[in-house]
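WARN no homologs supplied; continuing
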Amino acid sequence: MITRVDYDVADLALAAEGDGLIGWAGREMPVLGLIRERFQRERPLDGMRIGACLHVTSETANLAITLKAGGAEVRLCASNPLSTQDAVAAALARTHGVATFAVKGEESPRYYDHIQAVLDGHPNITMDDGADLVAELHKGRTDLLDGVLAGTEETTTGVIRLRAMARASALRFPIIAVNEALTKHLFDNRYGTGQSTLDGLIRATNLLVAGRTVVVCGYGWCGRGLASRASGLGAHVVVTEVDPTRALEAAMDGFRVMPLTAAAPEADVVITVTGDINVVDRVHLEALKDGAIIANSGHFNDEINLSALDDMSVDVNTPRTFVQSHRLRDGRTLHVLAEGRLLNLAAAEGHPAAVMDMSFANQALCVEHVARHHDELAIGVHDVPPHIDSEVARLKLAAMGIRIDTLTKEQERYLASWESGTS
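OK structure emitted
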């Protein structure tokens, strides 16, 4: 157990480096910057205690600083053991007064200890990326539930868990699914995951993507982005799916579609982005060819059946950072990247700041919304209010110097009427 203090980071001496990273990311986050300026003037979060379990990166730091500018007390821990940028965590604790509990590579007991340290702050509002904070709150810290007004959730996996909690009548307060905002999943999930996952693949392996067969498991927004970016680098892309509509879309987007059992023998790289468990299972591991690379960009390290792989292995070594090579009984070697955890955050730096600008603008505005309107929200999982989604898009376009048309009064009347037809 760690000592309950205002921070637990790798090294406070890294703070100056972290300040540089935070400032660099902030240059690419103009929408969040505009929100921060308004928060400083209006202080909409005065008196609020925010407990956040998010990836501790330079982009997240800009969000935490924005919330603090709005008057909130912020306590932050990592939502994945490998996603923390240690210099950023140090800067948040030393320079910005954010109680931060995150160390890259922390073992599971320390990870959950950090979640408890955040809950020790008795949050009024939760912010989650994967729903670990909310789950721990409901399982072991139920004495704090009466003080929680509402929360937000950042990612697909977390939304899935929270909706399951709501269906089971286990969820005890309202949560806004920031992941479902159009300005989040159309851009963060697609462009962010697509680029950053391939960045992680290349950093971890130095692999030439061109000419390789890359199998993308799942064709949601993350899978769409990943397949598109892999194809753009010259890969032969195969998509696997369980949803017929998404499979049809992948086929019409020009990708080969087949079951993973059929794709595995020819795969050079397999990357999962589904949010489900054992997507790459024993049957697929048995079919993969010698030298195949397996990775995951879904939130949890459940998508690859690592227990089955360990059972099949006679030796495991680490030829490169973030590469574990498993020699199997039949002589094949399979390579797992980043321990099966989020490849784009473990082996790279996560999504570019420019796309996280929109996601975290949604987070900031949704926190403001629940602080002001939590009494109006029923217990359950809610979509992002449309006016917030539109405002984020409007601000992003303005920051990019892009102008668009507006409806005329005549066009507004026409869209609101039914009388006009074929003339």
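Residues 182-205 form the longest helix (24 residues).
OK
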